[in-house]
Amino acid sequence: MLPAVDGLFFDIVHALDCSCRYCQEGMRQAGLEPSRESDRKAFGRRVLEEWIQEMSAFVRSFDPEVTIFYNAGHVGPSHRSVADAYTHWEIESLPSGGWGYLHFPIAIRYARTLKRESLGMTGKFHTSWGDFHSFKNRAALEFECFQMLAHGAKCSVGDQLHPRGRICPVTYELIGSVYRQVEEKEPWCAGATPVAEIAVLTPEEFTGERIPAPSAGATRILQEGRHQFDFVDTSADLSPYRVAILPDGIPVTGALGEKLRAFLNAGGAILASHRSGLTPEGDAFALPEWGVRYLGEAPYSPDFILPSGAIGEGLPETEHVMYLRASHVRATQGTEVLAETIVPYFNRTYAHFCSHRHTPSSGQRGYPAITQRGSVIYFAHPIFTQYHENAPRWCRMLVLNALRRLLPQPLLQVNGPTTLIATLTAQETENRWIVHLLHYVPERRGSRFDVIEDVIPIYDIAVQVRTLRPVESVRCVPEGRTLSYQSAGGAVQFTVPEVVGHQMVELSFRE
Amino acid sequence: MLPAVDGLFFDIVHALDCSCRYCQEGMRQAGLEPSRESDRKAFGRRVLEEWIQEMSAFVRSFDPEVTIFYNAGHVGPSHRSVADAYTHWEIESLPSGGWGYLHFPIAIRYARTLKRESLGMTGKFHTSWGDFHSFKNRAALEFECFQMLAHGAKCSVGDQLHPRGRICPVTYELIGSVYRQVEEKEPWCAGATPVAEIAVLTPEEFTGERIPAPSAGATRILQEGRHQFDFVDTSADLSPYRVAILPDGIPVTGALGEKLRAFLNAGGAILASHRSGLTPEGDAFALPEWGVRYLGEAPYSPDFILPSGAIGEGLPETEHVMYLRASHVRATQGTEVLAETIVPYFNRTYAHFCSHRHTPSSGQRGYPAITQRGSVIYFAHPIFTQYHENAPRWCRMLVLNALRRLLPQPLLQVNGPTTLIATLTAQETENRWIVHLLHYVPERRGSRFDVIEDVIPIYDIAVQVRTLRPVESVRCVPEGRTLSYQSAGGAVQFTVPEVVGHQMVELSFRE
Amino acid sequence: MLPAVDGLFFDIVHALDCSCRYCQEGMRQAGLEPSRESDRKAFGRRVLEEWIQEMSAFVRSFDPEVTIFYNAGHVGPSHRSVADAYTHWEIESLPSGGWGYLHFPIAIRYARTLKRESLGMTGKFHTSWGDFHSFKNRAALEFECFQMLAHGAKCSVGDQLHPRGRICPVTYELIGSVYRQVEEKEPWCAGATPVAEIAVLTPEEFTGERIPAPSAGATRILQEGRHQFDFVDTSADLSPYRVAILPDGIPVTGALGEKLRAFLNAGGAILASHRSGLTPEGDAFALPEWGVRYLGEAPYSPDFILPSGAIGEGLPETEHVMYLRASHVRATQGTEVLAETIVPYFNRTYAHFCSHRHTPSSGQRGYPAITQRGSVIYFAHPIFTQYHENAPRWCRMLVLNALRRLLPQPLLQVNGPTTLIATLTAQETENRWIVHLLHYVPERRGSRFDVIEDVIPIYDIAVQVRTLRPVESVRCVPEGRTLSYQSAGGAVQFTVPEVVGHQMVELSFRE
Amino acid sequence: MLPAVDGLFFDIVHALDCSCRYCQEGMRQAGLEPSRESDRKAFGRRVLEEWIQEMSAFVRSFDPEVTIFYNAGHVGPSHRSVADAYTHWEIESLPSGGWGYLHFPIAIRYARTLKRESLGMTGKFHTSWGDFHSFKNRAALEFECFQMLAHGAKCSVGDQLHPRGRICPVTYELIGSVYRQVEEKEPWCAGATPVAEIAVLTPEEFTGERIPAPSAGATRILQEGRHQFDFVDTSADLSPYRVAILPDGIPVTGALGEKLRAFLNAGGAILASHRSGLTPEGDAFALPEWGVRYLGEAPYSPDFILPSGAIGEGLPETEHVMYLRASHVRATQGTEVLAETIVPYFNRTYAHFCSHRHTPSSGQRGYPAITQRGSVIYFAHPIFTQYHENAPRWCRMLVLNALRRLLPQPLLQVNGPTTLIATLTAQETENRWIVHLLHYVPERRGSRFDVIEDVIPIYDIAVQVRTLRPVESVRCVPEGRTLSYQSAGGAVQFTVPEVVGHQMVELSFRE
User: Is A104 helix (H, G, I), strand (E, B) or coil?
Assistant: First the structure.
């Protein structure tokens, strides 16, 4: 009989590219060809999945309640098919250990859609596992733990025991200093679930990359716009969301096309960019709802967007360079062109040359840059990848302006610097929502990775939450300080006087 | 006759590695061998220098007052010998254009020691030259311009004119919005010279690198410690300084040894690390004043520093990992060991293995890590390079604690987050000093470079300035808001209520 | 006026891949794209050809009789279009200087079809040009000069003068020792033209290679078979030949197809191998006369040929391995399969393995290896390339047996070792033919190149010449020794008692 | 009990570079460091040798008479220490299978000095092992087998059986056609041992190369000079030899120096070249007997030898280029300079340039090229490596002329082309010697390897054998044709009327 244990954590569980004679035999039986890399990898994935299912069944034959997790340093779309074999998700993500500060938000925003409790796992090290006698900056540890809470996840901080078996008191004082705060915050986190209204289809489902460039750009843009969003895969139920974003390269099969059409018919809106929406063959848009016809790659690059009207709000009406090549599209009958491209005099080649980088605008209109047809807005450029490359502010603003057309009343609106992250969770059993405000700024202080060292307080942050339900009180928690607020049009507005790193605000609803 | 011009800016003026027959002939006459790369480069440098001298003489034969600058994207020790041919220094440094945010402070802190007016040059582009129709974030442009002011330099913002010759009004509104502020600040910047008390010997003199790792690390540590410092070369006059820092790899020739000994005898102090202080042969320390004997490379790495006492102030008394290999030294008679290394059980090789990274501490003392003999403190590790690699906070603290022993009363002491930069300039003709406080945080928001987007105000910054002279008033300028202050022990103390990006504080001295 | 000169030799005249602005302009005017390598090379060739035409016209404006040659170390199909600008061909070909012993026969056999006098050029060096104070072995120099004579070419032996201007007597004794023999042989060489009955289409026309592998293999096979052959390009008149060989990879356009059909209709025969005969698209044979349908690449390789009957004469009736992959063809109605392939048990892959190299024969018949339809014999394997790779004797024998079917009475038949080369030239003005017998064996004695050192005499060589015309006398020349001979069926037969390196035999025809 | 077998052939027995834990442990016990490649290889060799000893002891415990061989495709100096574990040597050497035609003579000439019966092993394949359904040219198989006989070795011809187990009759007819001849020759080969008077020290002992360039060059030169020689290692007994050759790079330790001095004192002579004779440190000659002092590398290269007198016999008295750089030596008092170098005007560098290759002779004498002191002749150039590179005839002649000074009456003198190989074996029990004359010429007919196809008979070969003993009869065997001969001065002279591939001549001694 298995001794009583709480749970089992199986570490370093990866699919392998194996050519042993058993795998070769298995591939042949499965009609796969062992000399083809893609077949070997598919088979490796299949072997892994079968093993996971078997192992969980075996464990549960002893104790059906025990927790089970198979760790691969990430949770993503490949976990969906074996989710039943897991009791929960653990997102291993040490920002200084190769994951960076973008991995955790991307992974947790997906993992939590798979209907399991989630947990974030960082380490106490300055760098990564095995970095004995190093200490993460305390502000960094705070940020990493509080960000987990803000996403509805539990916390885990890894250490490695000295071989003599002596606990390092300095480490535990460091962790303790943060966990004492977590403990105080816990009542507002227990059982909390994130509230999201935007579904971003994850390119990981198609590329297998853990941090696809379009996901990284979308995460930054939406976080800096304080939107509430999940990453989803194409098997997800879209009905809980109001907007679906298809960033840069989401192919649309027949099945996905049907799902998106139903989503639009049910009142949803879509924001798609660049090659998103093309069929898997990549030569035509799958749905007429997109409002554009695909002609190929844009003939000029870089080209320019001339923002004006609502899509250009906050931007001067002048050309803004787009460094990455757009798709060349034509608006179909009835589609509104929100912004045109302006083309350069010529592409820069050996034959034509201008200055240090690209050729300036000729002032001539080119082809559509941003279009809208009904509830679908389409960007011809890979605008999310662009933002991940070098973060042009105008790219973020164009996306956020487009979202404002599709989602005029977002769940959460917050002022303050774009370094401020804001999320929303619900404790349904407590009949309340929690607004999380996080302000920690990673800086590339050493050449290897970003660090956080300071807590820079910010003050008087104006917040508006679209609750639809009547609110009974607004309080900074756990402190308990009551905030005055105004209700109007299904939303409450209030001002948070001070955010010192992390501040939760409780919105209690009337019964 | 030359038409009346204000000045001449010769662009892209580099020494070349040339093998043309004239250069070959020149090399042979100079006893250099054209097939040897180092000889060709030396000759290229010589040709360049002669040309610069000739060209300036030629220009001045028409107008001795015209300004002259030869641009190579950098100013460094190689400019010293031809400084007379220049009227001033222009530091071309676009942080998003390959220079990064560390280049300007390193270059200006050196250039200003060459006794010429200096000017910082950035661009209005989101990336670099030729990036038509792009716009730098306004906060970034503010930071870059105000940082120039804070270092006693003038401002230059580059643009590139559209070939049609039309000025882009958006660009000039952007620049204007910052230059209007510069104009208001100008009365406190005109004729201002930086006040510094620490001289950091630049490794560039030996390696030719524009951003040597030890310089990058030293710049961050000293800026985060709010110290006032210059980079100097070995020809510099050290007498204006109270401390000289030799970061990680400054060889000490006989002449430099004499200079350093005189500096010590005159009351100066020295902080040296790793291989700094070794003779050019690299096998022995040049001066007995160093207080240590060189034995070679440390036998263990990584090893650990156990901080305690004054050198460990603010750090727990436990092992702290040092990732880079130290020099192995023995303290000579009478030298105080401020911190010992603690060694691991073994070096990690194929033969001995422990966990994911390095081997933990065995608890055994190894060899000196930090020593002091008189006014010389020596770090066995390349602590400045280490800080540039991954910014361990304990490394900065050890250096700052060591500096506190050598410089108990620094010119400027400022609280607030380490993201705050503080500098000091003097307007001798106005009989006043100006404290500059800068708070802008670059973030690696895109994968290509750091951006600054927000101004994050900070409040109630306590400042202490060692003036020695009696102060008559302390005012935030250009606003003119008077601050209350206290004088004691040759210093004044006051609190700056708010820093919104950049704040200057004027200290007027009594006549 | 040009001073009286005999001729002009322009050296090192190559087409260049040039991107200067004049060439760019020229390419654009010609509708070529300068960024495309193939366009640049085509243009370079065109520039060269125009220059050659212009230069010859210029030279001839002074003296229309002067000799003119532009040297590029080779003469090949690219010379045809500018042949008028040349007065003769000089084949620079130093076997030890990178050309090897195969270059000269390949180049001269082509050049002489362009209707100009030809000249072979070797050097007196042990290696190549500029190898001062070295001496070619005398037997090697003999072979190189006498081989020129045997191909109807004149001789040139290059030297390089010592800068002091003194002639090296040893060099001129060496050259003289050979040239004295050439002088004696001259009466039988002056005005002599090669007599050939086989035209081998040169792959150089399609690949630009100077020594294409199929040409190298064909040269060895046909020389070892003592056949009389030229290399020709597709513009050549085929009517003087009785057999055309298309070795391994000669594509057949519509025009070439017509020419070959006319050749067949006029009584010619064709031997083609592997991909020769496919259309330029490469997926079907151009002419039904080939007698085979193209199905793609052979499914097995290596596979085996089972020779039998006439095609296998001299070979045992057992499998013979063919290392290179065949074309997969099916014989069309009425085509005779001269030899089948026998296939191995399986191809050797990771999945099936047998021994050190290839899989042995399964004994199963595969697909046709050699077919004949009318006067066309087709080999499915690249048999000429194969012979160039590793010289399997069975490959040569299969080709020679096939030729015997197409050319039952070749011009020349000679016994003796395969190291013996035999050629035939005609002195029409003298009403006589000359048989050249050459016996020198290059050996890879050093690792860099082949050398010839010895003259190995051979004896009693039986010769048969198909003259059709009645012969009056057969004499060894220049010695004058008369040989007895027999005439029968349009041929004469005689025995050459001794070949010491080179022996000419004169056949005088009756008036 | 072991069933009765004739012998055991262990195939593919190599020393391995192994890092398994057992080998690591073994290395540490042996004081070797597993992370050092040279230590691992030394240990791998040691493991192999121990295993060989153990295995032979084990086999012999069952049957002390059984034959034992461990095959590694070569026999060389590393076999000496384990020779007792072998009953005989088998020299696997397929000329077309990567070994080339030089491997067998080099390997057998060494192996036979280790006092074991030897056997040559080739294959019946056109290329190498596993080349099913291919057939070596019959003349090639003859040469390979008869060459084994000529070196006193037995014959082995490898085949690979078709998996169906059927013997290929064509193969066995091929082998049979040669073996029938071997059978006839056998009475004159059984128990025959090679007779040699020159010992060439093998560079393999120092470099581990199987075909060192100096060995290849020496083999060609001595074979073409019809000398009788062995390759030996430094442990060999030199007393049976009259001359020792140290080709190009044989270092002389103290022990070897003593051995060579004893050899000289006993009447032996030495021919050494280039770096042979230097101490292992490489900066001075080990023995004053060398007659030269080492000054470093020659200042010029290429330089020239001016042959004259006896050393230049057969060569014109003019400069002959030496392509490889000589050692720079000075003749010591009493040493005769047989030939001087003549130096070029300058070395060819970017600074001085002349023509396509090297600079011609300035006519100035440089430094000694060939010296003689007593019985030691020294060549400053790596003349054996030179001959292996590109076979300059003058290099061979200089060596052979030098040998004539040291060995005025060689065992065997043969005229005829240099393609003729001549060896001498003794059948002591029969009281006779056998002269082997071999004439087969490998030609690089395909690009991959040399082939032999023809037997080119040669006639009237004059032979002189220094027998010292009175001869009773001279007969061509096995035919039995008696030759007339003359005896004079301890030698017999006779003429072999015809050599068709291989001819043995029996010299029967009077009792």
Answer: helix
Q: Are residues D105 and D216 in the same domain?
A: no
DSSP A198-219: EEEEPTHHHH--SS-HHHHHHH
Choose one of A389, A406, A423: the last residue of a domain: A406
Same domain, D220 and D154: no
Q: Which amino acid is at C118?
A: S
Residue A326 neighbours by CB under 8 Å, 6+ apart: A274, A297, A298, A301, A303, A341, A367, A369, A380, A381, A382
Q: Are D72 and D11 in contact (CB under 8 A)?
A: no
Interchain proximity B134–A320, CB inside 8 Å: yes
Among the listed residues B200, B148, B189, B239, the one whose alpha carbon sits nearest the alpha carbon of residue B438:
B148
Q: Nearest CA to CA, how far is A36 from chain C (Å)? A: 12
Chain A positions touching C35 (Cβ under 8 A) are 349-351
| Domain contains B1 | no
CA–CA distance, D359 with C281 (Å, rounded to integer): 52
Residue B126 in contact with partner chain A when CB distance is under 8 A: yes
Residue C158 lies in domain = 7-193
Please state, in angstroms and rounded to a whole number, the distance separating the CA atoms of residues B218 and B377.
Answer: 15
Do C376 and C431 lie in one domain? The reply is no
Say how many domains are in chain C.
Answer: 3
Residues of B in contact with D349 (CB under 8 A): 35
Cα–Cα dist A349/C24, whole Å? 14
pLDDT of residue A354: 83
Chain C residues within 8 A of D307 when measuring between CB atoms: none
Q: Which of D19, D34, D350 sits opposite B35 (nearest CB)?
A: D350
Task: Please tell me if residue C27 touches chain A, with a CB cutoff of 8 Å.
Answer: no
> Do residue B386 and residue B469 come from a single domain?
no
Strands lying side by side in the sheet with A154-158: A88-92, A117-123, A154-158
- CA angle, residues C472, C478, C480, in degrees to nearest 5: 50
Query: Could you tell me the CATH number of the domain that includes residue B253?
Result: 3.40.50.880
Chains near B, with 3+ CB pairs < 8 A? A, D
Please give the average per-residue pLDDT across B495-506, as a whole number.
98
Which of 437-456 (B) contact A at CB < 8 A? 441-451, 453-456
**Residue B2, in any domain of the structure:** no
pLDDT digits (tens, 9 = 90+) for A116-126: 999 999 999 99
Reported as a pLDDT band with limits 50, 70 and 90, residue A351 is confident
Residue A2 placed within a domain: no
Q: Does D354 touch chain C (CB under 8 A)?
A: yes
Query: What is the predicted pLDDT for the residue at B3?
Result: 59
Structure tokens at A472: 């009974």
> Both C214 and C331 in a single domain?
yes
**B379-394 in b/e burial notation, b at 16+ Cβ within 10 A?**
bbbbbbbbbbbbbbbb
C-alpha distance from A258 to closest chain B C-alpha (Å): 35
Residue A126 lies in a domain: yes
D50 in helix, strand or coil? helix
Residue B201 has pLDDT above 80, yes or no: yes
Asked if D365 has any chain C CB less than 8 Å from its own CB, the reply is no
**Tokens describing residue A319:** 């050309």
Residues D452 and D366 in one domain: no
Residues A39 and A152 in one domain: yes
The Cα B453–Cα B451 span in angstroms is 6
Question: Is the domain of A203 the same as that of A186?
Answer: no
Of B406, B430, B447, which one is at a domain's C-terminal end? B406
DSSP string, C278-345: B-TTSSSBS-GGG-EEEEEE-SSSSEEE---GGGGTTS-SS-EEE-SPPEEEEEPTT-EEEEEEEEES
| Strand order from edge to edge, sheet including A485-488 | A412-414, A458-466, A491-499, A485-488
Type of residue numbered D393 = R
**Which of D130, D445, D455 faces C220 most closely, judged by CB atoms?**
D445
pLDDT in tens, A319-328: 999 999 999 9
